[in-house]
Design goal:
The structure is a single chain. 49% of the residues lie in helices and 15% in strands. The chain has 4 helices and 2 strands. It has helices spanning 4-12, 41-49, 68-73, 82-113, and strands spanning 17-24, 30-38. A two-stranded antiparallel sheet has the order 1-2. Strand 1 (17-24) and strand 2 form a beta hairpin.
């Protein structure tokens, strides 16, 4: 599984990063996309100039690398506001609490149904 240390190492080849965001699903599993900001604009240009860049030799497809401007031009993409992200996180925490409660009551609940 790809982690933040591997992301820092991979993108560090192009320059010093100041921000790396690995997108994750509600269960916390990596979704396969990363947002990266470099300290120096020229470093981001080096990465954007790469053609057919792959994370590893085993990867069949090259990485899709887009600038923020180009990403936002895609009509299918809408970045979430901080408010939306906080709301999702609260809902995720509540969902985990609900699952934990269900798991602790599971045996009693199943006995009730039988």
């Amino acid at each position: 599984d790809f982690n933040i240390d591997q992301a820092e190492e991979f993108f560090g080849k192009y320059g010093k990063t100041c921000y790396i965001k690995m997108r994750k699903n509600i269960e916390g599993k990596f979704k396969g996309s990363v947002f990266v900001e470099f300290v120096d604009h020229g470093d981001s240009e080096k990465l954007l100039a790469e053609k057919d860049l792959k994370y590893s030799e085993a990867d069949a497809e090259p990485l899709v690398i887009l600038s923020r401007k180009r990403l936002l031009q895609n009509p299918k993409i809408r970045l979430k506001s901080n408010h939306e992200m906080k709301k999702e996180k609260r809902n995720s925490v509540q969902l985990k609490k609900n699952r934990k409660m269900l798991n602790t009551r599971k045996v009693g609940f199943l006995k009730f149904l039988v």
